[in-house]
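Researcher: Here's a chain I'd like modeled. Treat it as a single chain, no partners, no ligands.
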Amino acid sequence: MTVMQWTEKRIPIWVQPLPGEALDSWLEAYARRLKVTAHALLNFIGLPGSSPARMTERLSGREGEVLSEVTGLSPQALAAMTLEPYEGLTVAFHSGKDGMNRPPAWRYYGTHSRFCPACLDDTGGRWILAWRQPWSFACLRHRCLLLERCPACGQFVRAQGTRVGGPSKPMLCTRGRHSVHGDRRPRVACGFPLSQAPAHVLPPSGRVLQAQSHVDALLDGLFAQPEPRQGQLQDLYSLGWRSLAGLATDLGSAPQLVHQVLEETGGALPIQTNAQDATDVRSIAIGTALAHMADPRPTPADPKLFEWILEISDRLSTALDGPSPSTRAIAWRKASPHLAGYALARMDADLTLISRVRYGTAAPHPYFKRLTQDQIRQRAASLPDKLWPSWTMRLLTPALASGRSSDNFRRATSTLLMLPGTRLDYNPATALLDQKPTDRDRVKAFRMLDNYPQSALTSVIAQLAWALDEHGAPIDYARRRRLFREDTIRLDLPALNAICTELGWKHSDPSRGRLVQWHLLGLLLGSDPEPIDDKITTHHRFRLFTPRPLKDFLHAQAMANLERFGIDEPLRWEPPNTWATTNAWPGFDSDSIDHGLASELTAACFSEAFLVRQLGLTSTHFRLYCESRDITITPSSMPARRPSTRTRGKDIPRTGPLAPDQLQNLYVEQKMTMDQIGRIAGCSGSTVSIALREAGIAIPRRRPNGAIERLIDRDWLETEYHIKGRSAPDIARELGLHKNPVIKLIRKYGIPRNPGLHANAFASLGIRLSTPMTAISRTRNCVQRLRHLIQLPGHPHVAAASRALGLRDAVLRYQLNSIEKTAGFSVIARRTSPITATTRGHKLLAEAEHLLELLDRHTSQKVMRERQSGRPSAH
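Model: Modeled as a single isolated chain. Structure tokens:
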């Protein structure tokens, strides 16, 4: 309490305010110390007409100045003794005039005061400001319910009233009542000693006292954290009045905790007729205690009570406004976004895709609030018109992983991000992102998502949208869409021509210039603009194989265009992967990829198809991965386009492994075969043959007689082919030969063939297989089928697994049945949900997962060794 120095205007007698005391109580105590009434004191200090009760609501500017001068208390200390600091938080005032308005919670106006009789007795009749809060219903010190009416006259009590002719007497009821004296009926003060009023005692560890302690903690931190604390108070109110409504409508279905709270407060039902208008202390105590136990953050102390309250709310809203999602959402508009989300999540199973996204009902922690128009525009500015590449990787299923489908999916999901917390439909949302889809595009977008795993999509979209609202984006995409078009961006053509010369490209190729401009515009917009022609694959491949010098040039040009408009933003940005989570991504999580291996492979001049297989991705997901991490594949690994007869030879520059000097080293000095060189260069052996002739390198017409026999002996070939089950092409690849000489040698040696069996895919691992796995390893496409098989457990059913894997249901069931038929036992239990493996199936799945991991590691290491050494392993 800040007390100023003594001045000439200050009253020479000092009365110390008690901690938390209300202003009118202190003024009454001061007046009693001076042996006058409070009104006489106010008249004396120059505040005639002022009322202590009204001043306790809020002080005018003059009242604060005068009181501060004559009492020595600072204006801040005086304001803290009034309800004014709580305006808009727990109390409300009439605008432009005196008096209290309805508060945000309950119906208690604070124009009178609750009280604890024992506290009045302890302090000699001093009244606490907190007793006028709507949220005060119990005394933690004396463990009792507060009172609000005089037991003698039955009226609401006031802190202290004015006594005409002398000082007020503390602790007496000041409310007037009629006294009959003949025909005259003067009003006299009640005079009941309030310190002797009986109060209901509460159990020390009961729910009501716990709730009051929780509310007091929220009120204590209200000024430091107004938004979260006020949101928690609003949740207590939302749950509290609904629990009171439940007591009035369906007490029979209430959980046991409800009856315990009723017993704590006296056993009878609350007296309120309208739960939202509760004013009496007992109703508010019961409602707040039940709300505190049902609060879902972080989890309800009593989940059954929370479900009971939500069920009551559903019945009330359905009876009044019908069962539509919008009316149920409006019913929770005053609750916090977290509580509203939990309430709306109950109807998730009955909602359409748009509604699930709009209300965020599928999110792991449901969250819903109404966005303002400014907030909607801000979110649109945080979104590109197509979803970011790494997030597309996670959400795009393999079934949709094609050029056009992936583009449509990216556009549709970016549009869906506009819906949470709004009343926008799909078409208005697209307009905010400057998309111009037709009705046909809209139909195609929804048809595309019909068979999509919608729970994952709706959950991630809601989480990502709310995270964008909370954290924002460092890029204003709306501004970029407004500023950058094909006719507004600038491209340094002389510098581009110089780079093209360095790369050996023709300057006169107009299509390449348009592609460069298209990619520059895509960098500025944060996503691909509409394609300049129908060959969308060309654009994707151009970006994938863009040489590093050209890519660096495009980045520099993009930054120059940003600086030209005074934009200080990063060129590219994606939301952190922690902004949204799900149990299983429909696509591929980029964080699960071995980035080190990916960097080595992409830098090692391997073909795109090989890289896709090694990383276990689809071509579309691989391109999205490269785009998200700004990876460039070395141009020499780009599969060579077969030249026409007119342009073959001199018009095609040979680079990388096909350059003349490297061909001389690989083919002549290291004596590698054309197939080996082709695997390194990412092309066929015939292309290597053409490159050799162009370089003038002589190609022997025939292999010397007996060369193969001297290289491969019969015992080794029989072991590898017949016993281990390796295929002739696999053996030939290891030796750097074509398969035909190996097949001929098998026939020449008379080695038994393997009719009806396929090559053992795990033969190169050199480990012993179980009997069922040995049989499975010699079947067709066993590796692919085993990859699908190990992913079955955990899905609700086979149909859901097939959608997640991008397969038709019949195909996955056929593969499963084939494996079980070959193994001779059931691998997957058919009647469980989610899918589980049988006892023998569990062992087989564990073996398959181990073998596939070893096979992937072995293949990657083998390829890297061959790339580094340029030779097959010696036997």
